[in-house]
From TrEMBL:
The chain crosses the membrane at residues 16-33, 89-111, 164-186, 192-211, 283-301. Residues 882-904 are annotated as: Disordered. This is ABC transporter ATP-binding protein. It comes from the Bacteria. It is found in: Cell membrane. It comes from Microvirga arsenatis. Keywords: ATP-binding, Membrane, Nucleotide-binding, Transmembrane, Transmembrane helix. InterPro entries: ABC1_TM_dom, ABC1_TM_sf, ABC_transporter-like_ATP-bd, P-loop_NTPase, Type_1_exporter. It is a multi-pass membrane protein. One of its GO terms (molecular function) is ATP binding.
Amino acid sequence: MEKSLFRYIWTHSRRDQLIVCAVVLASLPFYFMSLDLPRQIVNQAIQGEAFRDGNATAPFLHLKFDWPAWLGSGTVEIFEGFEVGRVGLLMGLSFLFLFFVVVNGAFKYWINVAKGVLGERMLRRMRFDLFSMVLRFTPEALRSVKSSETATIIKDEVEPIGGFIGDAFITPVFLGLQATTALVFIMVQNVWLGLIALAVIAVQFTIIPRLRRELLRLGKQRQLASRQLAGRIAEVLDGIEVVHVHNAYDWERAEIGHRLFNLFTIRLKIYNRKFFVKSLNNFLAQLTPFFFYAIGGYFALRGTLDIGQLVAVIAAYRELPPPLKELIDWDQQRLDVQVKYDQVTQHFAEERLAPLLDARQEAEDVPLVGPMVGEDIRVAGPHGDMIIEGGAFAIDLPAKVALISNGGAAATTMARIIARRSTEFHGQIRIGDRDLLQIPASVAGRRIAYAGVDPILFPGSIRDNLVYGLRAKPLRRAAEDRREMDRRIAEAIRTGNPLEHISDQWVDYERIGARDENDLDRILIDLLDRVGMGDTIYLFGLGGRIDPERDRDLAERVVEARRRLRETFQTNGMADLVEPFDPTRYNSQATIAENLLFGVAVSDEFRGRNLAENAQFRSATDRSGLTDDLVQMGLEIAQTMTEIFEGLPPGHSLFEQFSFIGAEELTEFEAILRRHARGEGRLTQEDRTRLLALPLAYIETRHRLGLLDRRLMSRVVEARGLVREVLENSGDGVEFYDPDRVCAAAPLRDNLLFGRISHQVANARVRVAEAVAAIVRELDLLTDVERIGLDHQVGTAGRLLSPQERASVNLVRCLVKRPDIMVIDGALAPFDEAQAQQLMEVLIGLLDRQSLFMVLPNDRQAGAFDAQMRFRDGQIIINETAQRTPRSRQVEPGGAQTTAGEVA
């Protein structure tokens, strides 16, 4: 990052800065003329100096310039003008003044917009430059850099810098020339008044900046305190589970409160100093008019200064303080922004960044095979102890190598070095004639994969995370509106941003042996199945959704599978397992809300208790006469629940079984029941809404309170059509069931069953799942279901997946890019011993022609590898397995033919 802010700005925006400055210079003559017009209006038109000799007319637009006596006197005539009367002269000069007001306003508007656009472009460039440097942080720097602080810097702290960039050169030029023009005009009218104005300006520019130095120091403290506050809040959020487990709420509140108090104290000091400086500056600004009125009036009384000149001087001075004040503010902003910029450059210091190593020639991107030699490897621990001291080794790649840790840190350290996740070591590791650390990052990213103990997944689908390592560069540009594309590319060039678009084709299908996107999904699903996640992807697929408009063929096949599944249940005596959805019947396995809606809520206002508050739904139940019955049913449920839960502690299993009322709501419903006992009229509208919400979640076959009879079921079915009619007119809040269509809002599993599994039949869910799986295989839907499973969202940092699922996704992400070297360091820790053993065998089989380095805790599985790398007394010892697995010769597209050698 450029150390000087102004040099950074000038380097990247010199052309735009010069264009705006040229417009500023072009605006000055118009500005000077607008300052002189008040004098002409007062002297020539109002006082009649232009008609002093009895002339009936006077020239209008007579353009001339009178040099003052102290500059040698004289007149320069530009245009003779037009002869007009007294009123004509007054109106002409007034409209001319208005014209210059509009022109000057137009100049200011264009200049301000140009400054804003320039600032936004530079802010975009700066943020992109900083993000690019984030990608270059070394593994060691990442351990000391807080992600929240870095994100705060890029998002918030450079915002004022970007706002200043447009003002960096243009504002002092624009405001300085405006102030100089006004000051020159005053001096032209009267040199003494000009000197007075100049003296006050000199005092302002001397005292005010000095007083503002303390503001800079306080501003720096505030910025650091704010950044540390954001970092601490992020730390608490990341470790919130520990806070819950150890009841550290009060400590964390006190700690954050202490930081907020310190921040408040700093800001209070800033306000006191800031407004004192502002008051002093305003006083000095008002001092000059005092001198103008007193001394200028004295000169006017003596006749050395006419009234028009005095009015013009005062009018010109009114134009002088704003630019002067803005110039002082600009200087303050300059110092403040420079402090912020210095802190940004310190955070992105050069020592934290890895060197820029890019593939200089395509020929360099060749397989990482051949002799791998380490010489004089020395690694120091955090306390100065030597983890590896003078270690050396030689291995012929490809090979399967077990790094035996035996409880020490050396194996993990070596694994991170081989994977280029650590650069803090002395010595050299070469693969062939190439230094490991000097291999371009683009080549290493393709040829080396690393799976550590803590897999990192990004928010998005499982598929997005699996193909993450395949998005090296776009291969084909996506279809895009030509005009919009040209504008996007032009802006990208001006701001140093990438020309590529995120919608381009980034995945190289040929590299991994896939024909298209569907074939890639097949490869991903096969790899997931091999690492033991096939059943999970299938279940994710059943829980996923399809868009019948986008994939009509699949939607039709799902409807066909629905019919076949229904026939299977009927013919195999399993009809009692699932009660199907029927528009003319009540589904006793579904809630009352589901029976009324006969569909799936799309928006939150139709989900859960929000449904009871929804005005459209309430109007439908009111019109059908169901509301009072449901409220009465809610009273009975509340009465029963308060009796059942009385005396039970929160968290009891009954609360989960009867999920109508939470433990914290018992007292509220008890109060409602007491009000009802005093008389029906005492129930408020809010009470009725809360009671209505209870039966909407009621299922008779599950809860068995005997509250739902056939008469009420029939009335619910009768009201179903009215509810649909009202909700269809109100918008797209609910997608209704149709026996012949797929419901896009419902999971695929529900679309296949098109009903609810019985709560009364033992082991019904398992039997239904087996029947669904059989139909899916029979109709060749398995691949489609698993493809839908790839769309399953992993959540922030993969938190919607289990540790085993995160580890599996991480392994497949490494495998799918077919690396030459794969390093496994604790990636199998979430699995039990049998699963880990099976996964290890799968990895060895999948990486038959590639190298595998795996950290093992002991020798138990070491025999499956070609060699073992052990660490003893700081030395590296290579033991070759008695019978090394033979490997065939390998040819990679675009690469050289290689042969695996023996372990050195």
